[in-house]
Design brief:
With 411 residues, the protein is α+β, with helices and mostly antiparallel strands. Helices cover 44% and strands 17% of the residues. The protein has three domains: 44 residues, no CATH class; 221 residues, no CATH class; 86 residues, no CATH class. The strands form three sheets. Strands 1-2-3-5-6-9-12 form a seven-stranded mixed beta sheet. Strands 4-8-7 form a three-stranded antiparallel beta sheet, covered by helices on one side. A two-stranded antiparallel sheet has the order 10-11. The longest helix has 29 residues.
Length: 411
């Protein structure tokens, strides 16, 4: 029959430890299970990897149903026309970028933020837009997607190039970009997150109260009836707690033979409705588009610079590393609590990863709202677009959190 399972297992462990030069002895072998061995190897391997290589390894374990990094990206065609909503969102994004740009440069003694992301005032439908868009697609295939801002140590800042290199041909600044300590992709959301979270918390508490009132009522008044009809519902009710309510699922009964059974059915209907509301997503999110993962990865492959997503609300801001995003989506068990994936109307109906801000890092504990005003823009054939522009405001950075996020000791 050949080698038994234990012999094969011990043999494979020995080969594994020998291959990766891990000290081998019987005590260590007995103490380390498979997961410990894997973690031990990963930690040892990471020390010898640069940032890009670490990212590359994580991409290999991400489910291909989310994104397949081994396949080329799909090149997109230029949109034919812009909407007022699209331009307002673009203006809001530009304001958010400017806010972080100013906050870093006005606060930091040792680092400088510069504008780097590809941008233009042209919009779909205007002369020259198609050329700009196709050039942008070419650059995505060549170096990947530029983050909005780059962070440099002051000693590496090139005064001749200045604070805006967004319109400089990428081949002329390759070595300079590689000196950056971070690339920041800035996104924005028209919410006051503090008020949102309070209302969601109030909603949850309100429906929790309803759930436990109905649970108590059924177990007090209808337990004997349930023992006759279907005892499983007693087990379901008794399993409902604040800790378990997010995973509670059941098919409600449809008994109507008697008035008592009909009343019981309606109670289960109300119970299920309340639980469904509690289980709805109750968090705002950082929102990277799935299609962007490949072009961000391409940029990291080109420059080996750590990449981060910042999400600005109108009262606070949160951030997460690209590495952490990939680690999250490589673990299906975190879907729901940590992130959701779905099409987002606010993101041109593109498939978007919505990452729970409660699982990210707060980097601005307060934001002063900007001024805003309406603008009219005349397009071809006399078409008019009306949109909102934003100006001013202040972001108050949480320095300790920002240092931890960027993995720096000073600021």
């Amino acid at each position: 029959m050949g080698l038994q399972f234990n012999d094969l297992f011990n043999k494979s462990i020995y080969e594994f430890m020998s291959k990766y030069k891990i000290e081998y002895n019987s005590t260590k072998r007995l103490k380390l299970d498979c997961l410990d061995m894997f973690e031990y190897y990963k930690n040892k391997q990471r020390k010898d990897m640069n940032y890009y290589e670490q990212i590359r390894e994580i991409t290999k374990i991400i489910p291909t149903t989310i994104v397949n990094f081994s396949l080329p990206r799909n090149r997109t065609n230029p949109p034919t026309q812009a909407s007022s909503n699209f331009i307002t969102n673009k203006e809001q994004g530009d304001w958010a970028e400017d806010l972080i740009f100013r906050a870093i440069n006005e606060t930091s003694k040792n680092y400088i933020a510069i504008r780097y992301g590809k941008s233009d005032d042209l919009i779909a439908g205007e002369d020259g837009f198609d050329k700009f868009y196709n050039n942008f697609q070419d650059e995505l295939d060549t170096i990947g997607k530029r983050p909005d801002l780059l962070i440099f140590k002051k000693a590496d800042f090139d005064k001749k190039l200045g604070f805006d290199i967004s319109k400089i041909e990428h081949s002329l600044i390759t070595n300079y970009v590689k000196k950056a300590i971070a690339g920041l992709e800035i996104r924005s959301s028209a919410f006051l997150i503090q008020k949102y979270e309070k209302e969601m918390n109030d909603r949850t508490n309100y429906y929790l109260k309803i759930v436990f009132e109905i649970k108590k009522k059924i177990l007090t008044n209808y337990k004997e009836l349930l023992e006759q009809k279907d005892k499983k519902y007693i087990d379901i009710l008794e399993s409902i707690t604040e800790e378990s309510i997010q995973i509670i699922s059941f098919r409600r009964p449809s008994w109507n033979a008697t008035e008592e059974l009909s009343t019981l059915t309606n109670l289960f209907k109300e119970l299920k409705e309340a639980i469904t509301i509690i289980q709805k997503r109750d968090y705002l999110s950082i929102t990277p588009k799935v299609e962007d993962l490949k072009v961000v990865y391409k940029w990291i492959e080109t420059f080996n610079v750590p990449h981060f997503y910042f999400q600005l609300f109108f009262d606070k801001s949160y951030a997460i590393s690209f590495k952490n995003i990939l680690q999250m989506i490589s673990q299906p068990d975190k879907e729901g609590e940590y992130y959701e994936i779905g099409k987002d109307i606010k993101n041109q109906n593109k498939t978007t990863i919505k990452i729970n801000t409660k699982k990210t890092t707060q980097i601005a504990y307060k934001i002063d709202e900007p001024e805003h005003k309406s603008i009219k823009r005349e397009m071809g054939r006399g078409r008019l677009l009306f949109y909102v522009t934003f100006n001013g405001g202040t972001a108050y950075l949480d320095i300790d959190n920002l240092k931890q996020l960027l993995n720096i000791d000073d600021f």
